[in-house]
Specification:
P-loop containing nucleoside triphosphate hydrolases superfamily protein; Nod_factor_sulfotransferase; mainly alpha; hydrolase; globular; P-loop_NTPase; hydrolase activity; two-stranded parallel ribbon
Length: 246
């Protein structure tokens, strides 16, 4: 799902000399218009001659891309699972435990796509604390009436994705776990059968600290979640006051 740390995670992967991950290729609607265009697009990625076209000089041990769940993946899951299994594709599922924090990031990113707070430019990811501070100054207002149903829908989507792709070779990761425990990146490299490297990223986190400082109608959000299965999202922190450096 969007705003689950996938941009940061992909930069970590691409810092490995033997990895070539090609971004969010299915953000282009024409590439996911039907099953045929999806398969043709994947074929182009996996059939590229990496020794001549890749920017890296090292041999590529893992080649892939980033795919959001709402970009045709769920709609055509049966055919995609068949393709994955036939071609030996491995999937890394990256989710976010605190779905309320993810929602705040989605709302803030959507706002900036219109407001363009950084000198008239929209940036989903930033590389300096100064830029991060500017974007974090905006506090979105959450629709408290629909909050519980929206969180429930996100949970159900996650469960459905794992059910759909349970027959594929895959690993499940959570953004917060990677932040807290960087040995998770060792697990990822083992999963991809890569030689171990210290993975790095220049991205800087935008939203950090307690959620009460990031939401305009914090009191309404608190009332909406108190006594629900999502109440823990209000208090759980993710040790996210870090900066992602080289």
């Amino acid at each position: 799902m969007q705003r689950s740390g996938s941009g940061w995670f992909e930069t970590l992967l691409n810092s490995h000399e033997n990895v070539s991950s090609n971004g969010e290729i299915f953000s282009v609607k024409e590439r996911r218009s039907n099953v045929s265009t999806i398969i043709n697009t994947m074929d182009k990625v996996y059939n590229l001659d990496w020794f001549t076209s890749a920017s890296k000089n090292e041999c590529s041990a893992a080649v892939g891309f980033k795919w959001m769940l709402n970009q045709g993946l769920m709609k055509h899951h049966k055919e995609i699972v068949e393709y994955f299994n036939e071609r030996g594709v491995s999937a890394i599922f990256l989710f976010r435990r605190n779905l309320l924090r993810r929602m705040i990031s989605v709302l803030a990113n959507s706002y900036d796509s219109q407001a363009k707070l950084l000198n008239g430019t929209h940036k989903s990811h930033v590389h300096s604390p100064h830029e991060a501070k500017i974007l974090a100054n905006y506090k979105p207002k959450v629709n408290a009436t629909l909050l519980v149903s929206n969180l429930k829908e996100a949970v159900e989507t996650t469960a459905k994705a794992l059910e759909y792709f349970k027959s594929t070779r895959h690993i499940v990761l959570y953004y917060e776990d990677i932040v807290r425990n960087r040995t998770k990146l060792v697990d990822v490299q083992e999963f991809l059968r890569l030689p171990y490297r210290d993975l790095t990223s220049r991205q800087v986190k935008i939203h950090s600290g307690h959620l009460s400082k990031q939401i305009e109608n914090w009191d309404d959000v608190q009332k909406a979640l108190e006594g629900t299965s999502y109440e823990s999202f209000l208090t759980k922190t993710t040790n996210c006051s870090f900066e992602r450096r080289r």
